[in-house]
Amino acid sequence: MAVIKPFKGIRPPQNLVEKVASRPYDVLNSEEARVEAAGNPMSLYHIIKPEIDFDPGTDEHDEKVYAKAVENFTKFRQEGWLVQDETEKYYVYAQTMNGKTQYGLVVCAHVDDYMEGRIKKHELTRKDKEEDRMKHVRVNNANIEPVFFAYPHQQELDEIVKETIKNQPLYDFVAPGDGFGHHFWVIDNVNTIQRITELFAAIPALYIADGHHRSAAAALVGNEKRQQNPNHTGNEEYNYFMAVCFPDNQLTIIDYNRVVKDLNGFTDDEFLNELSNNFEIRKVGAEIYKPNKLHNFSLYLSGNWYDLTAKPGTYNDNDPIGVLDVTISSNLILDEVLGIKDLRTDKRIDFVGGIRGLDELKRRVDSGEMRVALALYPVSMKQLIDIADTGNIMPPKTTWFEPKLRSGLVIHELV
Fold first, then answer.
1. Cα–Cα distance between 317 and 129 in angstroms, integer?
2. pTM higher than 0.70, yes or no?
3. How far, in Å, CA of 216 to CA of 241, rounded?
4. What does the alpha-carbon distance between residue 105 and residue 92 come to, in Å, rounded to a whole number?
5. pLDDT at 237 over 90
6. Sequence-separated (6 or more) residues with CB below 8 Å from residue 403
7. pLDDT (tens digit, 9 = 90+) per residue, 57-74?
């Protein structure tokens, strides 16, 4: 069962939300954050990327940078740019992209559910990234940014959300840059809050869609605080961390593509000949070609697109990992032909989220920066859940969720 609870959210006043709200800390670098926050002292970047308040080049992991996050968080509250709700609430957070809206419930998830595997993972985490986020949670004593969960859709929860959104949203704006809509409602009816908690208690598992490092950091800090508190009761706020939970049938994973710097010594013809051992290959020409089904790929090389289809027997449809196109391409193209053994560390490969479109693959190859591009058919939510349920881990750079959660709409304090 999934244990959740409402919480006293710390939020911007309605008239300031667009000033405060930001992109997540990990989708832009320090310089990009500095540009986006220019002239705006209310930008959440001053808390989640506080290195922007120092000279360019300042190490974002310097202790003074973490201290600045605390100073800024305190300032935001003193100035009234962030204000805490007086009672515990749930919230509905909706996002609109390309005319489609998905509706999530903002809740506090339980540390035990993460530690004991009822919050399920599909990616490995890196200790250095975990530690960075743990420090940020520790020093601020708060989950400044939410994590992104999926849950098996449940009709009564859908109905509660439908009733909630009949009211005017408290926040309703289109974010600059990406043009996505963000909408936010407060659920403060005591009976509704209780029912949401009960309904989640009947859900066997939650699934991390995006934010594996933030999830790990939040849960680990909560666990630390228990061990450090001799009077721990289990009811403390640090036993929980903030998540936005979306029903799985509303989410779409988009493609996550690859570009490679060289052909591992092969000429174009030799490279294509090597691929023909495991793929049916059809030359499409200069017009962009997008994969249209599982085990179908598109390759861009020297001004031409190619349709690649994995031959029967080169993959295992009964293996939740082996069936993934990212596994097929990693094994049969990147490893076997191009000699790329470790996607996490090899400098010859880079990854391009499908939100940028296949034009971006073409651009990077045409510019000479990269030699070849590979586009993949996206993973399905069913595949993600199957993998998480069986305790497996997806290969690196498999899933890309869009739109990203906007940070700064609500914050959870651990006290």
1. 33
2. yes
3. 10
4. 5
5. yes
6. 95, 97, 178, 180
7. 999 999 999 999 999 999
Quote the CA–CA distance of 26 and 29 in Å, as a whole number: 7
- Residues of the chain above pLDDT 90, percent: 91
Alpha-carbon dihedral sign for residues 273, 275, 279, 280: negative
Domain harbouring 286, CATH code: 3.30.1760
The domain of 70 spans: 4-252+402-413
48 is a domain residue: yes
Q: How far is CA 325 from CA 86, 313, 381, in A?
A: 49, 14, 14
Do 183 and 318 lie in one domain? The reply is: no
The answer to whether the CB of 404 falls within 8 A of the CB of 23 is: yes
Same domain assignment for residues 314 and 202: no
Tens-place pLDDT, residues 172-204: 999 997 899 999 999 999 999 999 999 999 999
Q: Which two tokens stand for residue 160?
A: 């509660």
Whether 286 and 348 share a structural domain: yes
Does residue 319 belong to any structural domain of this protein?
yes
Distance CA 179, CA 96 (A): 9
pLDDT at 372: 98
Residues 183 and 222 in one domain: yes
